[in-house]
């Protein structure tokens, strides 16, 4: 059964290893499959987590069968994204640029702060309708723990455009860049993070698993076959999880990892932009009359461009009722 991998097998501390993977006996394989799929990540991600931790003959086949038969995953399959992707610059180090946003789930509000480099998410449950001061206080606590990034990207909703948040950015010395709330593609990275977080939290609730444990599994799962997990990219080491019982901290070439992250982002953009415009729309000028789509009715209403806002493709527009709106060209 193990003849093809016999040269990779070793014995250490009562465990049989294939390289750095623990060889799992048949009697425990079903339980390990359940642990691998705790966060209900997609089949590819589940295989990556297994490749990083455990082994048995035909494990990939068993993972495919297990994930395909998961009723919770079948119920929460994602819709395909059709809008064009706005590509962001990749930082050269962890926790240099982070995105942040609020989202609603299960009748509660959550705050997410995610690292653009490592994709590591920090997710905090907050009381609904929390004032801006609460958001600032939680963010301050996170930055006190992880360090102050050089730039924070958010949309322009009240919590992040408030005087309190501007003073917080000034006092703590980070650049705050905002995007239009009507166009989440402006902060597409954090929107994708939110979709993933909401999906695994929904599955966690349905399966009776705590949010903390599914987030831990997600953070410990390699991003791709050549890019380590978010936790390892951020912290420079593998972190312990219920599945990972034998920690190894291999040295990895940072230049090679950065090149792999760049290639992955380019592949993502090609995929998401298949149905998008081939080139960007021309820039607008002050005083130009335009049509703005009403998000409620879908109709196109007249407006006049007031000025360009901070951030690529973002403009301040005045509608016929005299209200100034911030919108992103797309």
Automatic annotation (TrEMBL):
Biological process (GO), any one: DNA integration
Organism name: Acanthosepion pharaonis
Annotated InterPro entries: Integrase_cat-core, Integrase_H2C2, Retrovirus_Pol_polyprotein, RNaseH-like_sf, RNaseH_sf
Domain Integrase catalytic: from-to ranges: 90-203
Name of the protein: Integrase catalytic domain-containing protein
Annotated Gene3D superfamilies: 1.10.340.70, Ribonuclease H-like superfamily/Ribonuclease H
An example Gene Ontology molecular-function term: nucleic acid binding
Domain of life: Eukaryota
